[in-house]
Hints:
With 74 residues, the chain is mainly beta. It has a domain at 31-68. It has one helix at residues 34-39; strands at residues 47-48, 52-53, 57-61, 65-68.
Amino acid sequence: MKPNKSPTKELSGANMDIDLASQKDISWSQDQCPLNKIENTTTHKCAVKNTSICDYFSGIKPLDTVLCSYPHKH
Ligand code: SF4
């Protein structure tokens, strides 16, 4: 755990499931993954629990904003 003056703790090693590919299954608006858009697919996900993290995934900005570096690998 990193030292932090904020009451919010920074805890590393999260096992995340994050995507911008579920527009049809959710009730809130969602931006589109640029890689999915270019390839006209929904297969790319930012993080898949227990499996992988996208090469372009650069983290999360509170509360639910993906930081994506596409087309430059992180
Ligand atoms: S990190 Fe970017 S390119 Fe990778 S899946 Fe998420 S939105 Fe798409």
